[in-house]
């Protein structure tokens, strides 16, 4: 049987401004991951989503329980990817509300075994622990495979030179190497998953149980 050499990476950026340092960081991780996989002979496709473009759709989904066609397409592409890169700005010491709301409307079994790199941006390095006390627990709960290296970027990391810039580059390269290794052996593209499958909150009689 011919080995499948095609891989697809989904990128989710929760930045609210344009241009966005959150999107810049997501793109850097994606570019490095793609380069690593292409070196191994993989044909890589990247789907990038800025959540600001689906903010109203996410809110409506939370209120009605049903995604719009636009949001449904985003969810389908994210949950069926071979690997996932997620980056959020830090709001009030955690991921922003749009980021959390997007992953709240995805079925909690849809990201099982998904290789994930987590990333965050903020004004100062004081917020760097957000990766381990907020983002990592979220994707651990979703049973994703989170890379050991997360990538945090403070405003000072985007300078023109210096050790901080080099350190950010090193973190991006390390995380990309870890993600590419997981994606290279991923079998998600050959599995059939339903991102809108009913979960345990639906009773056998069809009545919806609300917490």
Brief synopsis:
The protein is of the alpha/beta class. The chain has helices spanning 21-39, 55-64, 69-79, 97-104, 130-141, 163-184, and strands at residues 6-13, 43-50, 83-91, 94-95, 115-122, 145-146, 151-154. α5 links the parallel β5 (115-122) and β6 (145-146).
Inertia-based shape: globular
Sketch the major β-sheet. Answer: 7 strands, mixed
CATH architecture: 3-Layer(aba) Sandwich
Spell the H/E element sequence: EHEHHEEHEHEEH
Beta strand %: 15-25%
Distance between the termini: 48 Å
Give the CATH class. Answer: Alpha Beta
User: Which regions have little confidence, pLDDT < 50, spanning 5+ residues?
Assistant: 199-211
Considering DSSP H and I runs of 4 or more, what fraction of the residues is helical? Answer: 25-40%
- Structural class by secondary-structure content: alpha/beta
Number of strands: 7
CATH superfamily annotation: Flavodoxin domain
Radius of gyration: 17 Å
CATH topology: Rossmann fold
Number of helices: 6
Mean pLDDT: 88
Whole-number count of domains:
1
Organism: Homoserinimonas aerilata
Protein name: FMN reductase
GO molecular function: oxidoreductase activity
Domain NADPH-dependent FMN reductase-like: 8-158
Folded structure, characterized:
- This is FMN reductase.
- Residues 8-158 form the NADPH-dependent FMN reductase-like domain.
- GO terms for molecular function: oxidoreductase activity.
- This protein is α/β, with parallel strands linked by helices.
- It has one domain: Rossmann fold (3-Layer(aba) Sandwich), CATH 3.40.50.360.
- It contains six helices and seven strands.
- It has helices spanning 21-39, 55-64, 69-79, 97-104, 130-141, 163-184, and strands at 6-13, 43-50, 83-91, 94-95, 115-122, 145-146, 151-154.
- Strands 1, 2, 3, 4, 5, 6 and 7 form a seven-stranded mixed β-sheet that branches.
- Helix 2 (55-64) crosses helix 4 (97-104).
- The longest helix has 22 residues, at 163-184.
- The radius of gyration is 17 Å and the shape is globular.
- 36% of the residues are buried.
- The model is unreliable at 199-211 (pLDDT under 50).
């Amino acid at each position: 049987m011919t080995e499948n050499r095609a891989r697809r990476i989904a990128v989710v950026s929760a930045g609210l401004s344009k241009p966005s340092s959150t999107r810049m960081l997501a793109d850097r991780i994606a570019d490095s991951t793609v380069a690593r996989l292409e070196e191994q002979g993989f044909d890589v496709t990247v789907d990038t989503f800025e959540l600001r473009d689906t903010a109203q759709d996410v809110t409506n989904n939370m209120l009605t329980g049903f995604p719009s066609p636009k949001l449904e397409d985003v969810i389908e592409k994210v949950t069926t990817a071979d690997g996932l890169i997620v980056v959020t700005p830090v709001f009030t010491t955690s991921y922003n509300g749009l980021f959390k709301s997007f992953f709240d409307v995805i079925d909690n079994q849809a990201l099982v075994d998904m290789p994930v790199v987590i990333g965050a941006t903020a004004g100062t390095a004081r917020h760097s622990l957000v990766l381990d006390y907020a983002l990592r627990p979220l994707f651990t709960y979703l049973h994703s495979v989170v890379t050991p290296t997360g990538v945090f970027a403070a405003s000072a990391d985007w300078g023109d030179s210096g050790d901080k810039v080099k350190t950010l580059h090193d973190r991006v390269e390390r995380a990309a190497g870890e993600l590419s290794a997981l994606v290279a052996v991923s079998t998600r593209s050959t599995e059939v998953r339903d991102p809108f499958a009913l979960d345990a909150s639906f009773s056998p009689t069809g009545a919806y149980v609300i917490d």
